[in-house]
Amino acid sequence: MTMRRNLTISVAFIGALALLNGCKPVGPDYARPGYQAPAAYKETGAKAVLTPPAPPNGGAWQPASPSDGLLRGKWWEIYKDQQLNSLEEHIATENQTLKQAMENYLAAHDQVAAARAAFFPTLSAGGSMVRERPSVNGLSYNPARPNSFGDFMLASQASWEPDFWGRIRRTVEAARANAQADAADVATIDLALHAEMAADYFALRGMDAQTRLLQATVTSLEHQLDLTERRLGGGVATAADVAQARTQLETVRAQLVDVGVARAQLEHAIGTLANQKAADFGIPASPLDLDLPAIPLGVPSQLLQRRPDIASAERRTAAANAQIGIAQSAFYPSISLGATGGFESTNAGTWIQGPSSLWSLGAQATQLLFDAGQRRALNDEARHAYEAQTAAYKGTVLAAFNDVEDQLSSLRILESESLVEQRAVASAQHSYDLSNERYKGGVTSYLEVLTAENALLENQRTNLDLQTRQFVASVGLVRALGGGWDVSQMPK
């Protein structure tokens, strides 16, 4: 009866502790730092941008879902380039930087499971068999006991530290937030790698367009040199004309070689991103003849949900907030429960029997009374770390909005510059045609043709460069908007 009463008291005590274990954890509950997003983006003048409808009068319109009408999934497919699509697919399976980030996330995910294990008791079991002969001259000698005896024990122990003050809950909260931040870091790296791949690819195709232009120019200059030499033989041209024609031809050939160097470097960069060996990797020449797609912009408030770097900074702010609660829990007593049960006997024949059973239940509480201010310093440290992370979060948001504006302004300005440059190309072409006809008619010297040809080639190359830069800026805008990512893709 006494044993039953003791067990009843023990169970009641443990039940009371379990109820206390559900108390609200110490420390501040987390609230996302506030940030007022602008009502609209400033730079929206480029044709390559799809802007949402204006909000209704008196209302703050926002789509129900953060991804409504926005980029989704494999955003690079909007460029409709099969070769680019194939190269982008290599990143998910081959890129080592992305693999490293993924392993870091998996390690952080395991830390959540390790922290959550502290909610439960720890159990252990063991046995021992000892044969002992005490010294006759020792303190433990007893003439009434046998000269040698055995001790056989089989026991298990359980210990549990109830989470009265929420230290474990805050630890799990911090570990979960850090794991989510690492998952967002994976998305940030993934987005950056895909964007770098697309930018390098379009730059390479821009080099192919430059190569095509220079090759055509070389062919034209070879005809010009041949014409000038024939005119020299006929006494119409001078040796200076021939020298100028040959100089121009060799100059453009040198430019063609230089473009080849830049293309090779871009090809190697793309191969590195795709984790391909340079000796086995190549991209067929393909000049940039694509139409620039329009990028769906969305409203500024959606950017907070679409940028993985913002999500990462926000989750680390949540983890820093949980650290405050962990630091505060050190001011409260540490309470632990323990239990032992098993069998013990000096005779192996009576080892596993009822009379040989043993058990114990107990609780222990300790309170640190003096630590020379260590706990208070750690608490202040946690608060300052939270404020620092909050500032980092707000700085990340501000940088993200500026990033979008930078890319939008680049697209708008490059579009305007390209229109002007196209008119310059047309004018340079007309000037060259006139000069060439004048030279063939013997009205002017070859220097006029040479000057017009230089102006035409320079403007043609500038026009191609602007086209390439528009594609690169378009990729930059996709990256600045977060690609097809949003916070719903983070693990819970």
Description:
With 492 residues, this protein is an alpha+beta fold. It has a single domain, classed as Up-down Bundle (Outer membrane efflux proteins (OEP)). It is 58% helix and 10% strand. It has helices at residues 2-21, 82-94, 96-116, 167-233, 239-273, 303-306, 308-329, 374-440, 446-480, and strands at residues 49-50, 122-132, 149-160, 295-296, 334-345, 357-366. Strands 2-3-5-6 form a 4-stranded antiparallel β-sheet, with no helix packed on it. A two-stranded parallel sheet has the order 1-4. Helix 4 (167-233) runs antiparallel to helix 5 and helix 4 (167-233) packs antiparallel against helix 9 (446-480). The protein starts with a helix and ends in a 12-residue tail after the last helix. The model is unreliable at 59-68 (pLDDT under 50).
Going by CATH, the homologous superfamily would be Outer membrane efflux proteins (OEP)
Instruction: Give the class-level CATH name.
Output: Mainly Alpha
Give the tally of β-strands: 6
The largest β sheet comes out as: 4 strands, antiparallel
CATH architectural group:
Up-down Bundle
CATH T-level fold name: Outer membrane efflux proteins (OEP)
Sheet/helix structural class: alpha+beta
What's the alpha carbon Rg, rounded to whole Å? 38 Å
Number of structurally distinct domains: 1
N- to C-terminal separation?
Answer: 50 Å
Helical percent range?
55-70%
Mean pLDDT score, rounded? Answer: 86
Q: Spans with pLDDT under 50 lasting ≥5 residues?
A: 59-68
Put simply, the count of helices is: 9
Shape: elongated
In which order are the strands of the major sheet placed? 2-3-5-6
Strand content: 5-15%
* Helix/strand order: HEHHEEHHEHHEEHH
